[in-house]
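Lab notebook page, bench 4
Experiment: in silico fold of construct C2
Operator: M.H.
Input chain length: 287 residues
Purpose: comparison with the prior construct
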Amino acid sequence: MKCLVTGGSGFLGSHLVEELIDNNHKVTILDKISPKFKLKKKIKFIKTDLLNKKKVELAIKNQDVVFHYGGLSGINESMHNPLKTAEYNLIATLRLLDFCLKYKIKRFIFASSVYVNSEQGSFYKSSKRAAEDFIEEYKKKYNLKFTILRFGTVYGIRASKENNINKIIDIALKKKKIIYQGNKKNIREYINVKDASKLALKTINKKYINKYVKISGKEKTSVIKALTVIKKEMGLTSKIIYQKKKDVGHYINFPDNLVVKKAKKINSRQYISFAKGIREIIKSKTK
């Protein structure tokens, strides 16, 4: 199939692109940043901002599926930029939906977040929840087929500086200490980005048309356990340092306070272990 991936040069998007190519799909990346990862086959790349209507329309022409992974993804950044968050995560999404109708796109697959179930997540959560509502209405009014992917805590190589696991490892490499800023009670369902991308690729299947899909790890893991694994894999012996910091915008346990459209969790028979995933990040940073 011919697939457009907005944000295809980013953390989640770049790994999805690799999965699509490995499975013989034709891929076009739309991103304001050029891809920095090696590709086994040629892809089409359109360098543009999501708000550039002409280039976005050009990118959507003749596609079968649109994977919308682009936008503002950082909770901390969104907290201080509500207008920018709305422009990139909502307005840009609406324009994409209009172009999908115009060019009869077979499916619109949207990268959302488990934060839509939470009272946390600030303007980022609000933008994702609003986008989901608009996508649902486009289906009702125009019969635009969709799939919504609600990602949990994803980690792995090529993660942004704001990614928490990435941040912890970067600090540890510099200071030779594991330093964690946040609540010791935090629990997450960590999933390696490669596993997340394989699961996302599965949703091209017709059975996921007009479905909400949760993509997260196999089990809940305390932050204490996760930090212990990182410490072991880095060969550090000093005690883990916990720095108290109010987790503004972040949930402690899995976000399920609010009643919103239920998402069915998609699973895999095989997952990359957290320890192996951490080793891969460390190796990529210490080559």
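Observations: The chain is about 40% helix and 20% strand. The first strand starts at residue 2 and ends at 6.
Next step: discuss at group meeting.
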